[in-house]
Here is the input.
Amino acid sequence: MNGARIMVVDDEKIVGKMIKASFEQDGYTVETFSDANPALARLEEEKFAVVITDLKMKDIDGMQVLETIKAESPETKVIMITAFASMDAAIEALRKKVDDFFPKPIKIKDLKLCVKDLLSE
Amino acid sequence: MKIVHKIMWANIINIIFIALVYLFAVQFLELILAKLQFVEIADDLNASFLEMRLSEKNYFLYGDETVLKEIKGKLDESINSITSVQDSIVRAVGDSKYKELRRSVEEYKAAIQQVAANIASATEDTSMQETVRDSGRKLREFSAKIVSLERKKVNDIISHSKKVLFYFFCVAILIAMAATYLFFSKFLRSLKGIEKTATCISQGDFCKVEGTVTGDELGSVMAAINSMSEELDSRYEQIVQSRKLASLGILTAGVAHELGNPLNNIALVAQTYLELADHLSKEDTIDYMRTIEEETHRIEKIVQDLLHFSKPKQPNSKATEVNSVVEKSFKLVHNMLHVSGIDARLNLQEGLPHVFIDEDRIQEVIVNLIINAIEVMSPGGVISLKTYLEEKGDYVVIEVEDTGEGITAEHLPHIFDPFFTTKGVRGTGLGLSVSYGIIKNHKGNMKVESKEGVGTTFFIELPVHRLIA
Ligand SMILES: Nc1ncnc2c1ncn2[C@@H]1O[C@H](COP(=O)(O)OP(=O)(O)OP(=O)(O)O)[C@@H](O)[C@H]1O
Ligand SMILES: [Mg+2]
Here is the structure.
Protein backbone atom coordinates (compact mmCIF):
# COMPACT_ATOMS: atom_id res chain seq x y z
CA MET A 1 0.00 0.00 0.00
CA ASN A 2 2.83 2.36 0.65
CA GLY A 3 4.15 3.99 -2.41
CA ALA A 4 0.68 4.25 -3.95
CA ARG A 5 0.30 7.10 -6.42
CA ILE A 6 -1.99 9.89 -5.44
CA MET A 7 -2.96 12.90 -7.56
CA VAL A 8 -4.30 16.13 -6.07
CA VAL A 9 -6.09 18.64 -8.33
CA ASP A 10 -7.10 21.97 -6.81
CA ASP A 11 -6.59 25.50 -8.05
CA GLU A 12 -5.78 26.49 -4.48
CA LYS A 13 -2.10 25.53 -4.65
CA ILE A 14 -1.72 25.31 -0.88
CA VAL A 15 -4.12 22.36 -0.77
CA GLY A 16 -1.88 20.30 -3.03
CA LYS A 17 1.21 21.45 -1.24
CA MET A 18 0.01 20.48 2.24
CA ILE A 19 -1.54 17.18 1.22
CA LYS A 20 1.67 16.32 -0.58
CA ALA A 21 3.82 17.22 2.42
CA SER A 22 1.66 15.22 4.80
CA PHE A 23 1.05 12.18 2.58
CA GLU A 24 4.67 11.84 1.43
CA GLN A 25 5.57 11.59 5.11
CA ASP A 26 3.54 8.35 5.09
CA GLY A 27 5.32 7.06 2.00
CA TYR A 28 2.80 7.91 -0.72
CA THR A 29 3.86 9.36 -4.01
CA VAL A 30 1.89 12.56 -4.56
CA GLU A 31 1.59 14.70 -7.68
CA THR A 32 -0.25 18.01 -7.51
CA PHE A 33 -1.95 20.06 -10.21
CA SER A 34 -3.66 23.42 -9.99
CA ASP A 35 -5.27 23.12 -13.42
CA ALA A 36 -7.50 20.35 -14.63
CA ASN A 37 -6.10 20.12 -18.15
CA PRO A 38 -2.48 19.14 -17.31
CA ALA A 39 -3.92 16.79 -14.70
CA LEU A 40 -6.03 15.06 -17.35
CA ALA A 41 -2.99 14.83 -19.63
CA ARG A 42 -0.97 13.29 -16.82
CA LEU A 43 -3.71 10.75 -16.14
CA GLU A 44 -3.36 9.45 -19.66
CA GLU A 45 0.35 8.73 -19.13
CA GLU A 46 0.17 7.24 -15.67
CA LYS A 47 -2.24 5.29 -13.53
CA PHE A 48 -3.04 6.75 -10.11
CA ALA A 49 -4.53 4.83 -7.22
CA VAL A 50 -6.41 7.79 -5.85
CA VAL A 51 -7.33 11.18 -7.33
CA ILE A 52 -8.35 13.95 -4.95
CA THR A 53 -10.00 16.73 -6.92
CA ASP A 54 -11.75 19.98 -6.19
CA LEU A 55 -15.30 20.22 -7.53
CA LYS A 56 -15.08 23.68 -9.05
CA MET A 57 -12.04 25.10 -10.71
CA LYS A 58 -11.54 27.97 -13.07
CA ASP A 59 -11.17 26.12 -16.37
CA ILE A 60 -12.81 22.79 -16.00
CA ASP A 61 -15.18 21.23 -13.54
CA GLY A 62 -13.93 18.60 -11.16
CA MET A 63 -16.90 16.79 -12.67
CA GLN A 64 -15.07 16.49 -15.94
CA VAL A 65 -12.00 15.05 -14.24
CA LEU A 66 -14.32 12.57 -12.58
CA GLU A 67 -15.99 11.56 -15.87
CA THR A 68 -12.62 11.09 -17.59
CA ILE A 69 -11.20 8.92 -14.82
CA LYS A 70 -14.33 6.79 -14.57
CA ALA A 71 -14.22 6.28 -18.32
CA GLU A 72 -10.54 5.53 -18.72
CA SER A 73 -9.49 3.82 -15.51
CA PRO A 74 -12.48 2.71 -13.51
CA GLU A 75 -10.32 1.19 -10.78
CA THR A 76 -8.93 4.62 -9.80
CA LYS A 77 -10.60 5.92 -6.67
CA VAL A 78 -11.86 9.50 -6.69
CA ILE A 79 -12.27 11.73 -3.68
CA MET A 80 -14.11 14.98 -4.31
CA ILE A 81 -13.42 18.03 -2.22
CA THR A 82 -15.40 21.23 -2.35
CA ALA A 83 -15.71 24.61 -0.71
CA PHE A 84 -19.45 24.52 -1.30
CA ALA A 85 -20.67 22.67 1.71
CA SER A 86 -24.21 22.94 0.52
CA MET A 87 -26.72 20.14 0.16
CA ASP A 88 -27.27 20.82 -3.53
CA ALA A 89 -29.01 18.10 -5.45
CA ALA A 90 -26.04 18.10 -7.81
CA ILE A 91 -23.70 17.35 -4.94
CA GLU A 92 -26.04 14.67 -3.66
CA ALA A 93 -25.93 13.00 -7.04
CA LEU A 94 -22.20 13.33 -7.05
CA ARG A 95 -21.91 11.55 -3.72
CA LYS A 96 -23.09 8.41 -5.44
CA LYS A 97 -20.57 8.60 -8.26
CA VAL A 98 -17.45 9.43 -6.26
CA ASP A 99 -15.80 7.18 -3.75
CA ASP A 100 -15.85 9.79 -1.09
CA PHE A 101 -16.70 13.37 -0.55
CA PHE A 102 -14.90 15.95 1.60
CA PRO A 103 -16.19 19.41 2.34
CA LYS A 104 -13.66 22.11 3.11
CA PRO A 105 -12.05 22.66 5.58
CA ILE A 106 -10.43 19.27 5.18
CA LYS A 107 -9.23 17.23 8.10
CA ILE A 108 -6.03 15.61 6.87
CA LYS A 109 -6.30 12.76 9.36
CA ASP A 110 -9.73 11.81 8.05
CA LEU A 111 -8.51 12.13 4.50
CA LYS A 112 -5.64 9.79 5.23
CA LEU A 113 -7.96 7.26 6.81
CA CYS A 114 -10.24 7.47 3.85
CA VAL A 115 -7.39 6.92 1.38
CA LYS A 116 -6.17 4.02 3.41
CA ASP A 117 -9.62 2.42 3.41
CA LEU A 118 -10.08 2.90 -0.29
CA LEU A 119 -6.68 1.36 -1.07
CA SER A 120 -7.28 -1.67 1.12
CA GLU A 121 -10.59 -2.48 -0.58
CA MET B 1 -65.04 78.01 -0.19
CA LYS B 2 -66.44 74.52 -0.47
CA ILE B 3 -67.28 73.28 -3.93
CA VAL B 4 -70.90 72.71 -2.87
CA HIS B 5 -71.10 76.38 -1.88
CA LYS B 6 -69.51 77.48 -5.11
CA ILE B 7 -72.05 75.51 -7.11
CA MET B 8 -74.80 76.92 -4.91
CA TRP B 9 -73.61 80.47 -5.54
CA ALA B 10 -73.37 79.85 -9.25
CA ASN B 11 -76.93 78.58 -9.21
CA ILE B 12 -78.20 81.55 -7.21
CA ILE B 13 -76.60 83.98 -9.64
CA ASN B 14 -78.11 82.03 -12.50
CA ILE B 15 -81.57 82.14 -10.96
CA ILE B 16 -81.33 85.87 -10.26
CA PHE B 17 -80.36 86.49 -13.84
CA ILE B 18 -83.18 84.37 -15.21
CA ALA B 19 -85.62 86.23 -12.93
CA LEU B 20 -84.37 89.55 -14.25
CA VAL B 21 -84.89 88.42 -17.82
CA TYR B 22 -88.36 87.17 -16.89
CA LEU B 23 -89.40 90.47 -15.29
CA PHE B 24 -88.11 92.40 -18.22
CA ALA B 25 -89.92 90.22 -20.72
CA VAL B 26 -93.18 90.40 -18.73
CA GLN B 27 -92.99 94.16 -18.68
CA PHE B 28 -92.54 94.36 -22.40
CA LEU B 29 -95.31 91.90 -23.02
CA GLU B 30 -97.69 93.86 -20.82
CA LEU B 31 -96.88 97.07 -22.61
CA ILE B 32 -97.46 95.36 -25.93
CA LEU B 33 -100.71 93.92 -24.62
CA ALA B 34 -101.94 97.37 -23.52
CA LYS B 35 -101.03 98.86 -26.87
CA LEU B 36 -102.80 96.08 -28.71
CA GLN B 37 -105.89 96.51 -26.56
CA PHE B 38 -105.87 100.17 -27.34
CA VAL B 39 -105.36 99.53 -31.00
CA GLU B 40 -108.41 97.28 -30.89
CA ILE B 41 -110.52 99.92 -29.18
CA ALA B 42 -109.22 102.58 -31.52
CA ASP B 43 -110.04 100.38 -34.51
CA ASP B 44 -113.61 100.07 -33.25
CA LEU B 45 -113.84 103.80 -32.69
CA ASN B 46 -112.38 104.38 -36.11
CA ALA B 47 -114.98 102.16 -37.67
CA SER B 48 -117.87 103.92 -35.94
CA PHE B 49 -116.38 107.34 -36.80
CA LEU B 50 -116.29 106.23 -40.42
CA GLU B 51 -119.92 105.19 -40.24
CA MET B 52 -120.86 108.54 -38.68
CA ARG B 53 -119.13 110.38 -41.42
CA LEU B 54 -121.00 108.35 -44.06
CA SER B 55 -124.28 109.09 -42.31
CA GLU B 56 -123.31 112.77 -42.10
CA LYS B 57 -122.74 112.81 -45.86
CA ASN B 58 -126.13 111.16 -46.45
CA TYR B 59 -127.82 113.70 -44.24
CA PHE B 60 -126.37 116.58 -46.15
CA LEU B 61 -127.34 114.94 -49.45
CA TYR B 62 -130.86 113.81 -48.57
CA GLY B 63 -131.69 115.75 -45.38
CA ASP B 64 -132.94 112.66 -43.55
CA GLU B 65 -133.32 113.79 -39.93
CA THR B 66 -133.34 110.34 -38.43
CA VAL B 67 -129.77 109.99 -39.59
CA LEU B 68 -128.79 112.86 -37.33
CA LYS B 69 -130.25 111.01 -34.36
CA GLU B 70 -128.33 107.93 -35.34
CA ILE B 71 -125.11 109.90 -35.44
CA LYS B 72 -125.85 111.41 -32.09
CA GLY B 73 -126.55 108.00 -30.61
CA LYS B 74 -123.36 106.61 -31.99
CA LEU B 75 -121.38 109.62 -30.71
CA ASP B 76 -122.78 109.09 -27.21
CA GLU B 77 -121.85 105.45 -27.48
CA SER B 78 -118.29 106.37 -28.52
CA ILE B 79 -117.96 108.87 -25.70
CA ASN B 80 -119.18 106.25 -23.29
CA SER B 81 -116.78 103.66 -24.52
CA ILE B 82 -113.88 106.17 -24.53
CA THR B 83 -114.68 107.06 -20.94
CA SER B 84 -115.02 103.44 -19.91
CA VAL B 85 -111.61 102.47 -21.32
CA GLN B 86 -110.01 105.75 -20.34
CA ASP B 87 -107.46 103.96 -18.23
CA SER B 88 -106.16 101.72 -20.94
CA ILE B 89 -106.14 104.56 -23.46
CA VAL B 90 -104.16 106.76 -21.06
CA ARG B 91 -101.82 103.89 -20.40
CA ALA B 92 -101.29 103.27 -24.07
CA VAL B 93 -101.05 106.77 -25.53
CA GLY B 94 -100.77 109.09 -22.56
CA ASP B 95 -103.06 111.62 -20.98
CA SER B 96 -102.70 114.46 -23.51
CA LYS B 97 -103.60 112.29 -26.48
CA TYR B 98 -106.62 110.97 -24.59
CA LYS B 99 -107.80 114.51 -23.90
CA GLU B 100 -107.28 115.53 -27.49
CA LEU B 101 -109.28 112.56 -28.69
CA ARG B 102 -112.04 113.38 -26.29
CA ARG B 103 -112.03 117.00 -27.30
CA SER B 104 -112.26 116.06 -31.01
CA VAL B 105 -115.26 113.84 -30.28
CA GLU B 106 -116.92 116.60 -28.21
CA GLU B 107 -116.27 119.14 -30.98
CA TYR B 108 -117.85 116.84 -33.56
CA LYS B 109 -120.77 116.25 -31.26
CA ALA B 110 -121.16 120.01 -30.74
CA ALA B 111 -121.11 120.52 -34.51
CA ILE B 112 -123.73 117.81 -35.04
CA GLN B 113 -125.90 119.24 -32.24
CA GLN B 114 -125.70 122.65 -33.82
CA VAL B 115 -126.95 121.13 -37.09
CA ALA B 116 -129.75 119.37 -35.26
CA ALA B 117 -130.76 122.64 -33.58
CA ASN B 118 -131.00 124.45 -36.89
CA ILE B 119 -132.50 121.76 -39.02
CA ALA B 120 -134.35 124.23 -41.19
CA SER B 121 -131.35 126.13 -42.38
CA ALA B 122 -128.79 123.41 -41.95
CA THR B 123 -128.94 121.97 -45.46
CA GLU B 124 -128.48 125.42 -46.96
CA ASP B 125 -125.96 126.82 -44.46
CA THR B 126 -122.65 125.85 -46.02
CA SER B 127 -120.54 127.28 -43.17
CA MET B 128 -122.32 125.01 -40.72
CA GLN B 129 -121.74 122.13 -43.08
CA GLU B 130 -118.09 123.07 -43.26
CA THR B 131 -117.74 123.00 -39.45
CA VAL B 132 -119.30 119.55 -39.26
CA ARG B 133 -117.17 118.22 -42.06
CA ASP B 134 -114.00 119.74 -40.60
CA SER B 135 -114.48 118.43 -37.12
CA GLY B 136 -115.56 115.04 -38.57
CA ARG B 137 -112.50 114.85 -40.74
CA LYS B 138 -110.27 115.95 -37.89
CA LEU B 139 -111.70 113.26 -35.64
CA ARG B 140 -111.21 110.59 -38.27
CA GLU B 141 -107.71 111.68 -39.12
CA PHE B 142 -106.70 111.96 -35.54
CA SER B 143 -107.97 108.58 -34.55
CA ALA B 144 -106.47 106.97 -37.69
CA LYS B 145 -103.16 108.65 -36.91
CA ILE B 146 -103.18 107.36 -33.35
CA VAL B 147 -103.86 103.83 -34.52
CA SER B 148 -101.09 103.80 -37.05
CA LEU B 149 -98.78 105.45 -34.55
CA GLU B 150 -99.56 102.81 -31.95
CA ARG B 151 -99.13 100.02 -34.48
CA LYS B 152 -95.73 101.36 -35.28
CA LYS B 153 -94.91 101.62 -31.59
CA VAL B 154 -95.87 97.99 -31.06
CA ASN B 155 -93.53 96.99 -33.87
CA ASP B 156 -90.78 99.12 -32.35
CA ILE B 157 -91.26 97.59 -28.94
CA ILE B 158 -91.12 94.10 -30.37
CA SER B 159 -87.94 94.69 -32.33
CA HIS B 160 -86.46 96.56 -29.37
CA SER B 161 -87.20 93.73 -26.99
CA LYS B 162 -85.74 91.30 -29.50
CA LYS B 163 -82.52 93.26 -29.30
CA VAL B 164 -82.61 93.51 -25.54
CA LEU B 165 -83.23 89.81 -25.21
CA PHE B 166 -80.30 89.18 -27.50
CA TYR B 167 -78.09 91.34 -25.26
CA PHE B 168 -79.33 89.47 -22.26
CA PHE B 169 -78.41 86.28 -24.00
CA CYS B 170 -74.88 87.53 -24.67
CA VAL B 171 -74.49 88.75 -21.11
CA ALA B 172 -75.79 85.43 -19.82
CA ILE B 173 -73.16 83.57 -21.83
CA LEU B 174 -70.44 85.94 -20.64
CA ILE B 175 -71.55 85.55 -17.05
CA ALA B 176 -71.63 81.80 -17.43
CA MET B 177 -68.12 81.78 -18.85
CA ALA B 178 -66.78 84.15 -16.23
CA ALA B 179 -68.41 82.16 -13.45
CA THR B 180 -67.02 78.93 -14.83
CA TYR B 181 -63.59 80.48 -15.04
CA LEU B 182 -63.74 82.05 -11.59
CA PHE B 183 -65.22 79.07 -9.86
CA PHE B 184 -63.60 76.25 -11.72
CA SER B 185 -60.24 77.42 -13.05
CA LYS B 186 -58.72 76.92 -9.61
CA PHE B 187 -60.57 73.66 -9.35
CA LEU B 188 -59.16 72.48 -12.68
CA ARG B 189 -55.68 73.71 -11.77
CA SER B 190 -55.84 71.72 -8.55
CA LEU B 191 -57.03 68.66 -10.48
CA LYS B 192 -54.12 69.06 -12.90
CA GLY B 193 -51.74 69.30 -9.95
CA ILE B 194 -53.19 66.16 -8.45
CA GLU B 195 -52.88 64.33 -11.76
CA LYS B 196 -49.24 65.43 -12.08
CA THR B 197 -48.46 64.32 -8.56
CA ALA B 198 -50.08 60.94 -9.11
CA THR B 199 -47.95 60.44 -12.23
CA CYS B 200 -44.80 61.44 -10.32
CA ILE B 201 -45.61 59.04 -7.51
CA SER B 202 -46.17 56.20 -9.97
CA GLN B 203 -42.69 56.87 -11.30
CA GLY B 204 -41.19 56.73 -7.84
CA ASP B 205 -40.81 60.42 -7.20
CA PHE B 206 -42.75 60.97 -4.02
CA CYS B 207 -43.50 64.64 -4.60
CA LYS B 208 -46.33 66.77 -3.23
CA VAL B 209 -49.16 68.56 -4.97
CA GLU B 210 -47.99 72.03 -5.96
CA GLY B 211 -49.79 75.16 -4.85
CA THR B 212 -51.70 76.04 -1.72
CA VAL B 213 -54.05 73.53 -0.22
CA THR B 214 -57.48 75.17 -0.47
CA GLY B 215 -60.26 74.77 2.07
CA ASP B 216 -62.62 72.89 -0.23
CA GLU B 217 -63.16 69.19 -0.86
CA LEU B 218 -60.36 69.21 -3.43
CA GLY B 219 -58.12 70.65 -0.74
CA SER B 220 -58.84 67.63 1.43
CA VAL B 221 -57.99 65.35 -1.50
CA MET B 222 -54.72 67.27 -2.00
CA ALA B 223 -53.87 67.01 1.67
CA ALA B 224 -54.64 63.29 1.63
CA ILE B 225 -52.44 62.76 -1.41
CA ASN B 226 -49.63 64.72 0.18
CA SER B 227 -49.70 62.69 3.35
CA MET B 228 -49.95 59.49 1.30
CA SER B 229 -46.89 60.58 -0.68
CA GLU B 230 -44.99 61.27 2.54
CA GLU B 231 -45.97 57.93 3.96
CA LEU B 232 -45.00 56.14 0.74
CA ASP B 233 -41.68 57.93 0.79
CA SER B 234 -40.79 56.68 4.24
CA ARG B 235 -42.13 53.18 3.52
CA TYR B 236 -40.18 53.17 0.28
CA GLU B 237 -36.97 53.96 2.16
CA GLN B 238 -37.69 51.07 4.50
CA ILE B 239 -38.36 48.66 1.67
CA VAL B 240 -35.28 49.82 -0.20
CA GLN B 241 -33.22 49.24 2.93
CA SER B 242 -34.64 45.79 3.57
CA ARG B 243 -34.23 44.84 -0.06
CA LYS B 244 -30.60 45.84 0.24
CA LEU B 245 -30.24 43.61 3.26
CA ALA B 246 -31.82 40.81 1.26
CA SER B 247 -29.37 41.25 -1.59
CA LEU B 248 -26.65 41.45 1.01
CA GLY B 249 -27.85 38.01 2.07
CA ILE B 250 -27.39 36.74 -1.49
CA LEU B 251 -23.94 38.28 -1.64
CA THR B 252 -23.00 36.92 1.75
CA ALA B 253 -23.94 33.42 0.67
CA GLY B 254 -21.66 33.84 -2.32
CA VAL B 255 -18.90 35.37 -0.32
CA ALA B 256 -19.15 32.75 2.42
CA HIS B 257 -18.09 30.19 -0.16
CA GLU B 258 -15.19 32.42 -0.92
CA LEU B 259 -14.18 32.29 2.73
CA GLY B 260 -14.12 28.51 2.53
CA ASN B 261 -10.88 28.41 0.56
CA PRO B 262 -8.63 30.56 2.74
CA LEU B 263 -10.07 28.92 5.88
CA ASN B 264 -9.33 25.51 4.45
CA ASN B 265 -5.83 26.61 3.53
CA ILE B 266 -5.13 27.82 7.04
CA ALA B 267 -6.53 24.64 8.53
CA LEU B 268 -4.42 22.46 6.21
CA VAL B 269 -1.24 24.38 6.95
CA ALA B 270 -1.85 24.19 10.69
CA GLN B 271 -2.63 20.45 10.58
CA THR B 272 0.40 19.72 8.46
CA TYR B 273 2.58 21.79 10.70
CA LEU B 274 1.39 19.96 13.80
CA GLU B 275 1.97 16.64 12.11
CA LEU B 276 5.38 17.41 10.67
CA ALA B 277 6.72 19.92 13.21
CA ASP B 278 9.71 17.74 14.10
CA HIS B 279 10.77 17.28 10.50
CA LEU B 280 10.34 20.80 9.23
CA SER B 281 13.23 23.07 8.40
CA LYS B 282 13.22 26.65 9.59
CA GLU B 283 12.49 27.85 6.05
CA ASP B 284 9.51 25.51 5.81
CA THR B 285 8.18 26.82 9.12
CA ILE B 286 8.54 30.39 7.98
CA ASP B 287 6.87 29.51 4.69
CA TYR B 288 3.93 27.95 6.57
CA MET B 289 3.49 30.92 8.83
CA ARG B 290 3.64 33.34 5.91
CA THR B 291 0.99 31.31 4.14
CA ILE B 292 -1.26 31.53 7.18
CA GLU B 293 -0.74 35.27 7.36
CA GLU B 294 -1.52 35.75 3.68
CA GLU B 295 -4.66 33.68 3.95
CA THR B 296 -5.92 35.72 6.91
CA HIS B 297 -5.43 38.83 4.79
CA ARG B 298 -7.53 37.22 2.11
CA ILE B 299 -10.30 36.65 4.63
CA GLU B 300 -10.01 40.15 5.98
CA LYS B 301 -10.35 41.58 2.50
CA ILE B 302 -13.47 39.56 1.75
CA VAL B 303 -15.10 40.55 5.01
CA GLN B 304 -14.23 44.18 4.46
CA ASP B 305 -15.77 44.23 0.99
CA LEU B 306 -18.98 42.87 2.45
CA LEU B 307 -19.02 45.30 5.34
CA HIS B 308 -18.54 48.09 2.88
CA PHE B 309 -21.56 47.05 0.93
CA SER B 310 -23.80 46.66 3.95
CA LYS B 311 -22.79 49.71 5.95
CA PRO B 312 -25.46 52.42 5.98
CA LYS B 313 -23.31 55.06 4.43
CA GLN B 314 -22.92 58.78 4.53
CA PRO B 315 -22.83 60.14 1.03
CA ASN B 316 -19.16 60.28 0.22
CA SER B 317 -18.25 61.35 -3.29
CA LYS B 318 -14.75 61.73 -4.57
CA ALA B 319 -12.81 61.61 -7.79
CA THR B 320 -12.60 57.92 -8.53
CA GLU B 321 -11.21 55.55 -11.09
CA VAL B 322 -14.17 53.63 -12.49
CA ASN B 323 -12.34 50.40 -13.26
CA SER B 324 -11.49 49.78 -9.61
CA VAL B 325 -15.17 50.13 -8.71
CA VAL B 326 -16.17 47.67 -11.42
CA GLU B 327 -13.54 45.21 -10.23
CA LYS B 328 -14.67 45.48 -6.62
CA SER B 329 -18.29 44.93 -7.61
CA PHE B 330 -17.25 41.98 -9.71
CA LYS B 331 -15.42 40.44 -6.75
CA LEU B 332 -18.62 40.56 -4.68
CA VAL B 333 -20.54 38.55 -7.25
CA HIS B 334 -17.67 36.49 -8.57
CA ASN B 335 -18.65 33.43 -6.62
CA MET B 336 -22.32 33.71 -7.54
CA LEU B 337 -21.28 33.71 -11.19
CA HIS B 338 -19.12 30.70 -10.57
CA VAL B 339 -21.88 28.76 -8.87
CA SER B 340 -24.43 29.69 -11.55
CA GLY B 341 -22.06 28.51 -14.26
CA ILE B 342 -21.96 31.91 -15.90
CA ASP B 343 -18.94 33.16 -17.72
CA ALA B 344 -17.77 36.67 -17.03
CA ARG B 345 -15.74 38.84 -19.36
CA LEU B 346 -14.14 42.03 -18.20
CA ASN B 347 -13.03 44.53 -20.77
CA LEU B 348 -11.96 47.64 -18.92
CA GLN B 349 -10.32 50.43 -20.84
CA GLU B 350 -7.10 51.71 -19.35
CA GLY B 351 -6.44 55.35 -18.57
CA LEU B 352 -10.03 56.55 -18.36
CA PRO B 353 -10.59 60.00 -16.85
CA HIS B 354 -11.80 60.06 -13.26
CA VAL B 355 -15.44 60.41 -12.33
CA PHE B 356 -16.76 62.16 -9.23
CA ILE B 357 -18.81 59.45 -7.56
CA ASP B 358 -19.92 57.86 -4.36
CA GLU B 359 -18.09 54.59 -4.89
CA ASP B 360 -20.29 52.46 -2.65
CA ARG B 361 -23.49 53.51 -4.34
CA ILE B 362 -22.14 52.96 -7.85
CA GLN B 363 -20.98 49.57 -6.68
CA GLU B 364 -24.53 48.91 -5.50
CA VAL B 365 -25.81 49.77 -8.99
CA ILE B 366 -23.34 47.49 -10.74
CA VAL B 367 -24.12 44.65 -8.33
CA ASN B 368 -27.86 45.15 -8.95
CA LEU B 369 -27.32 44.91 -12.70
CA ILE B 370 -25.13 41.84 -12.42
CA ILE B 371 -27.58 40.07 -10.11
CA ASN B 372 -30.41 40.85 -12.56
CA ALA B 373 -28.29 39.44 -15.37
CA ILE B 374 -27.48 36.29 -13.41
CA GLU B 375 -31.16 35.82 -12.66
CA VAL B 376 -32.14 35.72 -16.33
CA MET B 377 -29.31 33.47 -17.54
CA SER B 378 -28.93 29.74 -17.44
CA PRO B 379 -25.53 28.05 -17.05
CA GLY B 380 -23.34 28.79 -20.02
CA GLY B 381 -24.52 32.39 -20.22
CA VAL B 382 -22.02 35.17 -20.60
CA ILE B 383 -21.90 38.48 -18.80
CA SER B 384 -19.62 41.21 -20.13
CA LEU B 385 -18.52 44.20 -18.14
CA LYS B 386 -16.99 46.99 -20.18
CA THR B 387 -15.78 50.47 -19.46
CA TYR B 388 -14.95 53.09 -22.05
CA LEU B 389 -15.13 56.78 -22.82
CA GLU B 390 -18.23 57.98 -24.61
CA GLU B 391 -17.57 59.40 -28.10
CA LYS B 392 -17.78 63.06 -27.16
CA GLY B 393 -15.63 62.44 -24.12
CA ASP B 394 -18.17 63.81 -21.64
CA TYR B 395 -19.09 60.52 -19.99
CA VAL B 396 -17.38 57.40 -18.81
CA VAL B 397 -19.60 54.45 -19.66
CA ILE B 398 -19.97 51.23 -17.71
CA GLU B 399 -21.65 48.55 -19.78
CA VAL B 400 -23.24 45.42 -18.34
CA GLU B 401 -24.24 43.00 -21.06
CA ASP B 402 -25.89 39.62 -20.68
CA THR B 403 -26.98 36.80 -22.98
CA GLY B 404 -30.24 36.28 -21.13
CA GLU B 405 -33.81 36.12 -22.36
CA GLY B 406 -34.05 39.85 -23.05
CA ILE B 407 -36.90 42.17 -22.15
CA THR B 408 -40.16 42.32 -24.11
CA ALA B 409 -41.07 45.60 -25.81
CA GLU B 410 -44.12 45.66 -23.58
CA HIS B 411 -42.05 45.57 -20.37
CA LEU B 412 -39.16 47.72 -21.53
CA PRO B 413 -40.74 51.13 -20.74
CA HIS B 414 -41.54 50.01 -17.18
CA ILE B 415 -38.40 48.33 -15.90
CA PHE B 416 -37.18 51.47 -14.12
CA ASP B 417 -40.55 51.97 -12.38
CA PRO B 418 -40.52 51.17 -8.70
CA PHE B 419 -42.11 47.82 -7.85
CA PHE B 420 -42.13 46.69 -11.47
CA THR B 421 -41.06 43.09 -11.48
CA THR B 422 -41.65 39.98 -13.57
CA LYS B 423 -40.29 37.80 -10.80
CA GLY B 424 -43.42 37.69 -8.69
CA VAL B 425 -42.69 37.46 -4.98
CA ARG B 426 -39.04 36.71 -5.64
CA GLY B 427 -38.40 40.28 -6.73
CA THR B 428 -39.30 43.61 -5.18
CA GLY B 429 -38.90 45.44 -8.49
CA LEU B 430 -36.79 48.08 -6.79
CA GLY B 431 -33.32 47.17 -8.04
CA LEU B 432 -33.48 49.17 -11.24
CA SER B 433 -35.53 52.03 -9.83
CA VAL B 434 -33.06 52.54 -6.99
CA SER B 435 -30.14 52.22 -9.40
CA TYR B 436 -31.70 54.76 -11.73
CA GLY B 437 -32.12 57.17 -8.82
CA ILE B 438 -28.47 56.74 -7.82
CA ILE B 439 -27.20 57.40 -11.34
CA LYS B 440 -29.49 60.43 -11.74
CA ASN B 441 -28.10 61.78 -8.46
CA HIS B 442 -24.68 61.56 -10.04
CA LYS B 443 -25.95 63.62 -12.98
CA GLY B 444 -25.45 60.58 -15.12
CA ASN B 445 -27.73 58.54 -17.37
CA MET B 446 -28.87 54.98 -17.32
CA LYS B 447 -29.97 53.37 -20.55
CA VAL B 448 -31.00 49.95 -21.69
CA GLU B 449 -31.02 48.04 -24.94
CA SER B 450 -32.60 44.67 -25.20
CA LYS B 451 -33.37 42.08 -27.82
CA GLU B 452 -35.72 39.28 -26.94
CA GLY B 453 -33.95 35.95 -26.88
CA VAL B 454 -30.57 37.57 -27.47
CA GLY B 455 -29.75 39.59 -24.41
CA THR B 456 -29.82 42.87 -22.59
CA THR B 457 -27.29 45.64 -22.19
CA PHE B 458 -27.41 48.31 -19.52
CA PHE B 459 -25.34 51.47 -19.94
CA ILE B 460 -24.31 53.59 -16.98
CA GLU B 461 -23.02 56.97 -18.11
CA LEU B 462 -21.14 58.98 -15.50
CA PRO B 463 -19.99 62.52 -16.23
CA VAL B 464 -16.22 62.96 -16.49
CA HIS B 465 -14.82 64.78 -13.47
CA ARG B 466 -13.23 67.99 -14.71
CA LEU B 467 -10.99 69.93 -12.41
CA ILE B 468 -11.68 73.60 -12.63
CA ALA B 469 -8.41 75.09 -13.84
N1 LIG C 1 -30.79 41.84 -17.48
C1 LIG C 1 -32.13 41.71 -17.59
N2 LIG C 1 -32.67 40.88 -18.52
C2 LIG C 1 -34.01 40.74 -18.63
N3 LIG C 1 -34.90 41.38 -17.85
C3 LIG C 1 -34.43 42.21 -16.91
C4 LIG C 1 -33.04 42.43 -16.72
N4 LIG C 1 -32.88 43.32 -15.73
C5 LIG C 1 -34.11 43.65 -15.30
N5 LIG C 1 -35.05 42.99 -15.99
C6 LIG C 1 -36.52 43.11 -15.83
O1 LIG C 1 -36.79 44.28 -15.11
C7 LIG C 1 -37.56 43.98 -13.94
C8 LIG C 1 -37.21 44.94 -12.84
O2 LIG C 1 -35.89 44.73 -12.38
P1 LIG C 1 -35.52 45.17 -10.91
O3 LIG C 1 -34.09 44.85 -10.66
O4 LIG C 1 -35.94 46.59 -10.73
O5 LIG C 1 -36.46 44.31 -10.00
P2 LIG C 1 -36.39 42.73 -9.74
O6 LIG C 1 -35.07 42.20 -10.19
O7 LIG C 1 -37.60 42.12 -10.33
O8 LIG C 1 -36.50 42.66 -8.18
P3 LIG C 1 -35.27 42.83 -7.15
O9 LIG C 1 -34.20 43.58 -7.86
O10 LIG C 1 -35.84 43.57 -6.01
O11 LIG C 1 -34.88 41.44 -6.81
C9 LIG C 1 -37.25 42.53 -13.64
O12 LIG C 1 -38.31 41.92 -12.96
C10 LIG C 1 -37.06 41.95 -15.04
O13 LIG C 1 -38.29 41.61 -15.63
MG1 LIG D 1 -33.21 43.10 -9.61
Remarks:
- Chain A has a mean pLDDT of 84.
- Residues B 243, 368, 372-373, 376, 402, 404, 407, 411, 415, 420-423, 427-433, 456 surround adenosine-5'-triphosphate (ligand 1) (CB under 6 Å).
- The longest strand of chain A covers residues 77-82.
